[in-house]
Write a structure and sequence with these properties.
Blueprint (H helix, E strand, L loop, with lengths): L1 E14 L10 E17 L4 E6 L4 E6 H8 L15 H11 L8 H20 L6 E8 L9 H17 L11 H19 L5 H8 L2 E4 L6 E2 L18 H14 L1 H28 L19
Parallel strand pairs: 3-5
Antiparallel strand pairs: 1-2, 2-5, 2-6, 3-4, 6-7
Helix pairs in contact: 2-3, 3-4, 3-5, 4-5, 4-6, 5-6, 7-8
Length: 301
């Protein structure tokens, strides 16, 4: 019996929202609100259960049915990150009873779970399956732009890789290579849920702190003095997938207007970095690595 508990923080993008999808920089911070994933495994068993009480989701599958499904999927290696293919996605959707056009994040989270679970079985042994019971609880509101799906993705990725033995199960802190692998698989989960994410959400959730992020560049954690940030939850739900698609449509329709806006957003991000750097110099004795004081580091076991 292997019991696992991992947690990851949410995030807030201070500057660079949407522009980061188009290769611009974003300045984002982890939050002192976390998602926690509990997973229990047994060397044999007959079912896999996924429970997300915050959103009223509970799904259970028979292990034999999952094995039959996974045997139709391409073999995957947990060490080598790969995006879910269209044929694999269709197989998972059909198995879960989810329509191809369904973009409900709750349903897509089920697809993401099944995809990563298939990696676990493939890594361990198809002939010696592991029964899983997974419960995910969160202090993060959903559909609020605070990275609830990214925190879920990071927790799921870490837990699955731990079960597979791909990352450490015993050390109190993962090595940089392990964190990188967790982050990459979390990004693939985000792609399933959101379609075309930038990668900033899962990166902040994995590493924690204040992060300067840009696609195709190494993220940079920034030291800052103690700051207070007020976040107001409007309780108006919105879909990241839909919002990103709307911006994409505007970029395609009005490139001459939108591209200068994206450049201006980039300039604001870099100006904010300069301001924070100046504040850090003025408060050298009180600066610290994390924007939030205590429970704000990245992924935890």
């Amino acid at each position: 019996m292997l019991d696992i508990c991992v947690s990851a923080p949410g995030k807030v993008i201070l500057h660079g929202e949407h522009a980061v999808v188009y290769g611009k920089s974003a300045l984002a911070s982890s939050l002192d609100l976390r998602t926690v994933l509990y997973i229990k495994t047994a060397p044999s068993g007959s079912s896999v259960t996924l429970t997300l009480p915050n959103i009223g989701l509970e799904r259970r599958w028979q292990m034999t049915d999952l094995i039959d499904l996974y045997e139709t999927l391409p073999n995957s290696d947990a060490q080598n990150v790969s995006a879910v293919g269209k044929s694999t996605l269709r197989c998972l959707q059909q198995f879960a009873g989810i329509a191809e056009e369904d973009t409900d994040p709750k349903q897509l989270a089920v697809i993401a779970f099944l995809y990563l679970h298939s990696l676990t079985l493939s890594t361990l042994s198809r002939g010696d399956p592991v029964s899983l019971s997974v419960v995910v609880e969160s202090a993060l509101p959903t559909a609020a732009g605070l990275g609830s799906s990214a925190a879920f993705a990071v927790c799921l990725s870490a837990a699955v890789l731990m079960v597979a033995g791909t990352v450490s199960r015993t050390q109190s802190k993962w090595e940089s290579g392990e964190l990188e692998l967790i982050n990459k698989w979390a990004f693939e989960v985000e792609r399933i849920i959101h379609g075309d994410p930038s990668g900033v959400d899962n990166t902040v959730s994995t590493y924690g702190g204040l992060v300067l992020y840009r696609k195709s560049e190494r993220m940079r954690q920034i030291k800052v003095p103690p700051l207070k940030i007020i976040i107001v939850d409007t309780r108006i739900a919105r879909s990241t997938r839909v919002l990103v698609q709307r911006v994409r449509e505007k970029c395609s329709k009005y490139p001459g207007i939108i591209e200068p806006v994206l450049d201006s957003i980039q300039a604001i991000v870099m100006k904010a970095v300069d301001v924070l750097a100046a504040l850090t110099q003025e408060n050298r004795d009180t600066s610290y690595d994390m924007l939030e004081i205590r429970r704000t580091r990245g992924l935890r076991m």
